[in-house]
Design brief:
The protein is α+β, with helices and mostly antiparallel strands. Helices cover 19% and strands 40% of the residues. Strands 1-2-3-4-5-6-7-8-9-10-11-12-13-14-15-16 form a 16-stranded antiparallel β-barrel. It is elongated. The termini are far apart.
Amino acid sequence: MNSSRNFLILIIFSLIFSASLNHEARGDERNDVKKELKELRQMMEQMQKKIDDLEKRNRALEHQANQKDDKSKDETIVVEEETDLTVIEPPAEQGQSFLDKALNVFNPEISVIGIFAAAYYSQNDPIVFAENDPENTGVNVQEIEVGFQSVVDSYFRFDLFLSFNTEGVELEEAYGTTLLSLPLNSQFRVGRARAKFGRINQIHRHNQNFVTLPLPAAQFLGEHLNPTSIEANFLVPLPWYLELSASGGSPDVETSTFARDEDANEIGRLLYIFHIANFFELSESLGISLGGSFATGSNDTAPGERSNLYGIDLFAKYRPLKNNPYQEIMLQSEFIYLDAKTPEETLENWGWYAQLVYRFAKRWNSGFRFGIIDTNTPIQQEDGATEAEASNLFSLVRNEEGEEEEGMLGLLGRTYRISPMLTFNPTEFSRIRLQYDYLNQDFAKNQHAIFLQFQYAIGAHGSHPY
């Protein structure tokens, strides 16, 4: 009996001991779970804190980016003589209907740019070298340019520029450009276009840095050398940018250097122009463009007589974007040599100009230009004449009625001009420029001139070469 009781007591004791051990184990497990939950909670709090910090940094970066965008919208950077006054059109929406696309084909980009100049000349009958230079003392309409530009289809683009002044309207440019991927990285232009001769000839008036055209360009190329021709351009695959251009067409240009020959149907009597352009990016802030040009065509002094024109152009641009984005220095220079065959003799004329433009503030730039034209074969004045009349020195190819006139192929002597200028650009759509010209000739009176130019642009207008 006692043994049975002891056995029962032992069983009860073991049950109680095992229950207590189980309770203690469960208590330890609960403590471990609580500890793990606490650690997880701390980790989540730390992660949430990191997320909050990242969100704050992201908001700060977005705020800085928005400030930069607003600043870039408010600040206008006007790039002289390599980019045009440009209005950027918003891209077309993805969901355009067929009707909208069809209407856009017949709705080209249209631009109108007006250039006016108040002028004072020291002479009553001033000497004016280029067609769109200010003609007289007073307020002059230099040019109203109207442009139409659009992609024709997937194969061609068409550009049209009309030049208006008080004497009428002129077809400045009207040409189509291929958009195809052609062999040898080639591109073709067909129509009437500013020829790729030198640098200044490829730049429209409103995008030039001075009120007047440089002397060599005005004398040898006219207001612009823009024959009706077929032009081929080839981009040579080299470590630097190298473009070769060649064109051939009719010599129907407004300059005395070239003119249509009596035997105009012969291919050899056409005007041929060749150009090579190199661009070297020496650093992020400095780029240099170097080119060479050659043009040959009839001059209409006699059947078979030709003019050969040679040119070298240089352009350098320094712009430290990191240190001062509103500082810019541009150097531009061209040398032109004319070898013209005439029945009497071979004329050898040459000219050179250099200009330096310094942008010293956001909307301000200043510049200085020196230009000279001279000859190895000066035209002799009439016997007894001691001083040439200003109005007879340089005659235009076309008169006020648009009729052709005989231009002066030769030169009377040396002429040079000094031109400092100051320009203020309120926005990319307007410009005010002050310029002084001092003209010195060894066969006529010296001439002083002061110009105050105003320029306005509306509509879209494409950029010009660098």
